[in-house]
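Memo to structure team: turn this sequence into structure tokens by end of day. - J.P.
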Amino acid sequence: MQPRILTVSSANMDLNMRVKEAPVKGQTVFGKSYSYVPGGKGANSASAIAKLGAESYFCTSLGNDDNGKALLTLYNRLGIRTEYIKTDSGLPTGLATVTVEDDGANRITVFSGANLSVSPEIAENAFYGVKPDAVFCHFEIPFETVVHISHICHNNGVPMFIDAGPADSALNLSFLSPVFVFSPNETETEIFTGICPDSEKSCYEAVKKLRSLVSAEYYVIKLGKRGAAVSDGDFLEFVPAFEVPVKDTTAAGDSFTAALTLEYVRSKDIIRSCRFGNAVAAVTVSRMGAAESIPTADELSAFLCNKGIVI
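Reply from structure team:
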């Protein structure tokens, strides 16, 4: 029986723009191409969980507009369970502009739209309806909803995994009940802690600071092409990334943490789960786009086989 994972998070339509280099303040640059693609941290993660073979339930909110209808159709096609997706007639579907440079780096601006109506009530309804093996969240929805679902998970003994983006130093992380995994990337770590995790020492110092802000079983700092640093507050271990040609880093972090969540529910091995997440992220960054760049279980197996990688 496949794990049931509930993602309570965001859904966006992305306007993806390819440029040689992103403009600086006051500068105009010419783009190479643009496209509309499904995105949003929550949708990327729910897509990864479904494509990798688990039961993926998605709790979010879409506008009653063309973007919302297109996204809902896609989620159903991917096999995501959509019965806990709300349609909000008063707000448009979330929109993100994603500027992708030639080296794969991206800059993202998000208009929250209907994501603002992902309320504690609809999250609670989804939790008790699904009875999940794990819950996965980001901070692209109201923080009060993330806090509320953390209390529910803690009270019911269900592990909660938080991909801590986007970061905001004004968030009071102490409001969260203890979670299982708290996972910021490099930039988010620096925003929350004031420490740039660019060395083993600074990673450990950042974890100690995070530990004072939020209680978690494990802290997993995503380090981009360097992989990930994993700590329970005492030990610290680096899990290296897999080298691949990088085309677009959009959805890399979302796919990593979603894959980590799925693999931990299956194996109960945090280091194995980080390796699995690194493999999924490696395939994701080698392709263009957000949700559509995330590999299926078969595509991931082929990648691992071709690289001679054993997770």
